[in-house]
TrEMBL record:
The species this protein was found in: Fukomys damarensis
GO molecular function: G protein-coupled receptor activity
Main location class: membrane
Subcellular location: Cell membrane
Alphabetized UniProt keyword annotations: Cell membrane, Disulfide bond, G-protein coupled receptor, Glycoprotein, Membrane, Receptor, Signal, Transducer, Transmembrane, Transmembrane helix
Region forming the signal peptide: 1-19
Domain of life (superkingdom): Eukaryota
Name listed for the protein in its UniProt record: Putative G-protein coupled receptor 27
Domain G-protein coupled receptors family 1 profile: start-end pairs: 1-54
InterPro entries hit by this protein: GPCR_Orphan/Phoenixin, GPCR_Rhodpsn_7TM
PROSITE patterns per record: G_PROTEIN_RECEP_F1_2
GO cellular component terms attached to this protein's record: plasma membrane
Spans through the membrane: 35-57
Membrane topology qualifier: Multi-pass membrane protein
């Protein structure tokens, strides 16, 4: 999970960092407004994608989330059989 989050961070923040360095070191007009806008929106997307990636890679968190919805459980599965100690996942 750590590698996936780090890779996504680098991919989504990379264009913004490049645009910022070009604007400072080369000249302010070196980067088009469309590229700058798209790179800013990619940084916003990283904030939204990060929790999804953590949820997909963390089985304990998924199990706790499912335990909160008993209507989605099979009749054999009871709430006591699912681990749902949110203190264990850092919440």
């Amino acid at each position: 999970m750590f590698y996936a989050v780090t890779l996504l961070f680098l991919l989504l923040w990379g264009p913004y960092v490049v645009a910022s360095y070009l604007r400072v070191l080369v000249r302010p007009g070196a980067v088009s407004q469309a590229y700058l806008t798209a790179s800013v929106w990619l940084t916003f997307a990283q904030a939204g994608i990060n929790p999804v990636v953590c949820f997909l890679f963390n089985r304990e968190l998924r199990d706790c989330f499912r335990a909160q919805f008993p209507c989605r459980q099979s009749p054999q599965t009871t709430r006591a059989t699912l681990p749902c100690d949110l203190k264990g996942v850092g919440l």
